[in-house]
Design goal:
Strand content: 15-25%
Distance between the termini: 8 Å
Number of strands: 11
Bound molecules: 2'-O-acetyl adenosine-5-diphosphoribose
Largest sheet: 6 strands, parallel
Order of helices and strands: EHEEHHHHEHEEEEHEHEEH
Structural class: alpha/beta
C-alpha cells in the first residue's frame, strides 16, 4: 500500500457494544428503571425536581461498573485502533469505562462518563468512583450539594461535537455498532458521513434500526461476534 492514502475510519458505538458485558441498554428489556423511562431520569429537569432519584440511578450504574468486564467487541475495536494505518476515531455514546479498560485511546465520550462528576459551583470536573448524594461536599471548593454526574442529559449539548464533525468531514469508512439511532446528534452521523463522501457505511446491530437505511452494509448479530469478524476483514483489506 506504499504511496497510497489509507482510508479514514470513524466508529460510533452505543449501548449494544457493552450489552454482552452485562451493562443494560437503554431501550431494551431493562429500558425502565423504577418505572421511569431513561428520558425522565436523565434530564436537568429531573435533577432539579428529584435529585435524590437521579443520584440513585447513576450511583447504581457507577457501582455496577465494578462487576463488569470488557467483551470481545471492545477488545477488537482496540486492535483496530492500534493497527489501523489511516486516521481512526472511536466516538462512544456509552458512559461506562469498558473501552478504556480494553486499552482504547483514540476515544471520545460524547455523552460524558459515569466515573466523572462536575461541580455546579466551581465548575471543576473530577474523577469519582463512589456514590454521590445531595449533600456530598465538592473536594475542590468544599461546597455541599452542588455535585452532579458529568453525563450529558437530554436537552444538553453533547461533548466533542466539533472534533467529531471534523472527523466526519474526511471519513471514508463509518462503522456504527449497537445503537438504536434515536438520539440525536449521534443518530445523524451516518447521514452526515454519507453526505461528506464516505463510501462504506457499516452497521452492526441485533436488528434493523431507525437509521439502517443510511448504511451500505448491515450486519445483524451480536457485537461480540460481528465486531471481531469485521475488524479482521478491514485489517486484511488495508494491511
Ligand atoms: P439503546 O438502548 O437505545 O440501543 C441499544 C441498541 O443496541 C439497540 O438497537 C439494540 O438492538 C442493540 N443491541 C443490544 N444488544 C446488542 C448486542 N449484543 N450486539 C449488538 N447490538 C446490540 O442505546 P443507545 O443507542 O446507545 O444517552 O442510546 C443512545 C443514548 O440514549 C444513550 O447514550 C443514552 C440514552 O439516553 C444519555 O444517557 C445521554
Amino acid at each position: 500500500m506504499a504511496g497510497l492514502t489509507h482510508p479514514n475510519l470513524v466508529v460510533l458505538t452505543g449501548a449494544g457494544l457493552s450489552a454482552e458485558s452485562g451493562v443494560p441498554t437503554f431501550r431494551g428489556t431493562y429500558g425502565l428503571w423504577e418505572g421511569h423511562h431513561v428520558e425522565e431520569v436523565a434530564s436537568p429537569q429531573a435533577f432539579k425536581a428529584v435529585p435524590e432519584m437521579v443520584h440513585r440511578f447513576y450511583n447504581m450504574r457507577r457501582a455496577s461498573l465494578k462487576t463488569v468486564e470488557p467483551n470481545a467487541a471492545h477488545h477488537a475495536l482496540v486492535r483496530l485502533e492500534k493497527a489501523w494505518p489511516g486516521s481512526f476515531l472511536h466516538v462512544t455514546q456509552n458512559v461506562d469505562d469498558l473501552n478504556e479498560r480494553a486499552g482504547a485511546e483514540k476515544l471520545l465520550h460524547m455523552h460524558g462518563q459515569l466515573k466523572k462528576i462536575r461541580c455546579l459551583n466551581c465548575r471543576n470536573v473530577m474523577h469519582w468512583e463512589e456514590d454521590l448524594d445531595i449533600s456530598t461536599v465538592c473536594p475542590e471548593c468544599a461546597t455541599a450539594g452542588k455535585l452532579r454526574p458529568d453525563i450529558v442529559w437530554f436537552g444538553e449539548v453533547p461533548y466533542h461535537i466539533e472534533e467529531i464533525s471534523q472527523a466526519l468531514e474526511t471519513v471514508d469508512i463509518f462503522v456504527c455498532i449497537g445503537t438504536s439511532g434515536v438520539v440525536y446528534p449521534a443518530a445523524g452521523f451516518a447521514r452526515q458521513a454519507a453526505s461528506k463522501g464516505a463510501k462504506r457505511l457499516i452497521e452492526i446491530n441485533l436488528e434493523a434500526t431507525e437509521i439502517s437505511s443510511h448504511f451500505t452494509d448491515q450486519r445483524q448479530g451480536t457485537a461480540g461476534e460481528e465486531v471481531p469478524r469485521l475488524v479482521e476483514e478491514l485489517l486484511k483489506e488495508v494491511l
